[in-house]
Amino acid sequence: MSGNQGAFRTAILIQAGLTKEQFIGTDVISTILVDTVCVAVYGWSLFLEKFSQTEASCCC
Question: Which of 11, 14, 19, 31 is the most buried (most CB within 10 A)?
Answer without folding.
Answer: 31
